């Protein structure tokens, strides 16, 4: 019998499915629940156990991991008679890996404490590829002892794992991450259009740019998206729109000016309004092409 903690996993989307599978590969017993039957079938095929409800999934779990799109979904699965807090055992550790508002994380930690449940907010960066390869960056908010307990599990999911401060700190750092990523993708997209319209060999140009100071993880991960106009979602525009709302609102609350971030947030919103919300965030290239007079 494994001495590893029993894990309940709620949310098996683009990120959640490969992450849960990496836990199974690491020897964890994972019981999962999500709304899509095909995702449950995938978990079962990978060696996980399928639950018929949140309550069933979390009842015997030592650790509950959640990976859902936004604050409303976190609140929906956490609260209420059928939610995590009413059905997880006292002493369980809830690790929320969703990207939500810092205040939602703070409120969840307080509500969970009343039930004897400990909470970490642990959003991730690295996209679908990082989830598959188990090289995610994981930014954590919560208590040191809970972080220490969760770290072996998190090490099966990511490469850079850092406790950033008290509850909500992980979400604050994730908001900053999404600001940097969006601005970086936008800059890359503008460079791609500029290079192409100038008649330069785009692949050669991106290769040499990525070897210098302009290089970045964003360019490494998204270069082929730009070259092939492949916008299959690894991280959807819809979700980045949500995250830009989080960072602009949080920045306003603390009095931080985000002039470039505000412009990129509007560009993300415009792309979504034009029907591209389901595409990968590298599709910001389409917005720049439209602004440059191209038919997209």
Topology:
Layout: E1 7-10, H1 16-25, E2 30-33, H2 37-45, E3 49-50, H3 54-58, E4 63-66, H4 71-78, H5 84-87, E5 93-96, H6 102-113, E6 118-121, E7 124-125, H7 127-133, E8 136-141, H8 144-155, E9 158-165, H9 169-197, H10 202-210, H11 217-228, H12 237-254, H13 259-276, H14 284-291
Parallel strand pairs: 1-2, 1-4, 2-3, 4-5, 5-6, 8-9
Antiparallel strand pairs: 7-8
Helix pairs in contact: 9-11, 9-12, 9-13, 9-14, 10-11, 12-13
Tell me about this structure:
This protein has 296 residues and is an alpha/beta fold. It folds into two domains: 6-166, Rossmann fold (3-Layer(aba) Sandwich); 173-292, N-(1-d-carboxylethyl)-l-norvaline Dehydrogenase, domain 2, CATH 1.10.1040.10. Helix content is 54%, strand content 13%. It has helices at 16-25, 37-45, 54-58, 71-78, 84-87, 102-113, 127-133, 144-155, 169-197, 202-210, 217-228, 237-254, 259-276, 284-291; strands at 7-10, 30-33, 49-50, 63-66, 93-96, 118-121, 124-125, 136-141, 158-165. It has a six-stranded parallel beta sheet with strand order 3-2-1-4-5-6, with helices on both faces. It has a three-stranded mixed beta sheet with strand order 7-8-9. The active site is at 174.
